[in-house]
Amino acid sequence: MLFLDHAVDLSDIDLAIYKYVLQNLDKVIYMRIRELAANTHTSTASVQRFCRKFECQGFTEFKIRLKLLQEQTAAKTPATPVDPGMYINFFNRVTTPDFDAHIQAAVQLLKQCELVLFIGVGSSNVMAEYGALYFSSMFHMAVRIEDPVTYPQRYFPKALLDKTCVIALSVSGETPEVISYLSNLSFRDSHTLSITNSAHSTVARLTDVNIATDIAKEHYVEQDVTSQVPCLFILEYLAKILHEQNKAD
After folding, report:
1. Residues contacting residue 213 through CB under 8 Å, at least 6 positions apart
2. How many CB atoms lie within 10 A of CB 232?
3. Which positions ≥6 away from 121 have C-beta within 8 Å?
4. DSSP tally for the chain: helices H, then strands E
5. Bridge partners of 145?
6. Cβ distance 160 to 115 under 8 Å?
7. Where on the phi/psi map is residue 152: left (φ > 0), alpha (ψ -120 to 50), or beta?
8. Which is nearest to 51 in space by CA: 12, 7, 17, 6?
9. At what angle do helices 59-76 and 44-53 cross, to 10 degrees?
């Protein structure tokens, strides 16, 4: 919370001050304690107690630490324009024989299956939900594993396991929950496919087939905001190929 790396137990009064500080960081660092108390409809004593909860001796130290936090945040988040070249490079690779070989391997794997299970965490979880919806519309029954710590395959008969494919989505390829899930499946009969940024990641190496996007990584503060456009394209591309081949059959 703010400049602390752990949560703080806040009362209702503390919470009112906290919300005001979050919404008015630029102003609070120049305020006097009486001004903050007046703007939050509290007292100077309440503000002092609030500051002590954030491990500060008083309001002056609290403002100094707020100022440092603001400077550190600004230094970590420089404005970066969208680079269209990143997407152009990816779509150029889509037409290469190497990329097509991985796509065809994924298609052959999925053609053996009647049920597709998607798994992902964070933004990849959103892609998993979209993938399940899109595959259900274009190919076969597909569902998203909402909680990666559950293993519904344990209750599947072997005949269904043989025709089930787990599609693991992970930009970094090192998502602990996804690695744990795939490790649990490694001794079962389900097929596995992954879409990751690197073909050398743990998730990629745990699956039968991997499709790597090889796109530039992006971070905002501490969050990984690497584009999911390549993953979205690959999901739709696979589903459409499978749909057309099913029609032809």
Report:
1. 90, 195, 196, 197, 230, 231, 234
2. 16
3. 148, 170, 175, 177, 178
4. 12, 7
5. none
6. yes
7. alpha
8. 17
9. 50
Distance CA 67, CA 26 (A): 9
Pairing outcome for strands 115-120 and 191-196 = unpaired
Number of C-beta neighbours around residue 70 at 10 A:
15
How many angstroms from the chain centroid is the CA of residue 128? Answer: 11
Instruction: Give the tens place of pLDDT for each residue, 46-62.
Output: 999 999 999 999 999 99
Contact 157, 190 (CB under 8 A): no
Q: Distance (Å, rounded) from C-alpha 130 to C-alpha 116?
A: 13
Compute the distance between CA of residue 99 and CA of residue 94 in angstroms, rounded to an integer.
6
Residue type, 238: L
Question: pLDDT tens across 117-152, in order?
Answer: 999 999 999 999 999 999 999 988 899 988 776 666
How far, in Å, CA of 2 to CA of 5, rounded? 8
Task: Specify the residue for token string 């660092």.
Answer: 29
Q: How many CA atoms lie within 13 A of 199 on its CB side?
A: 10
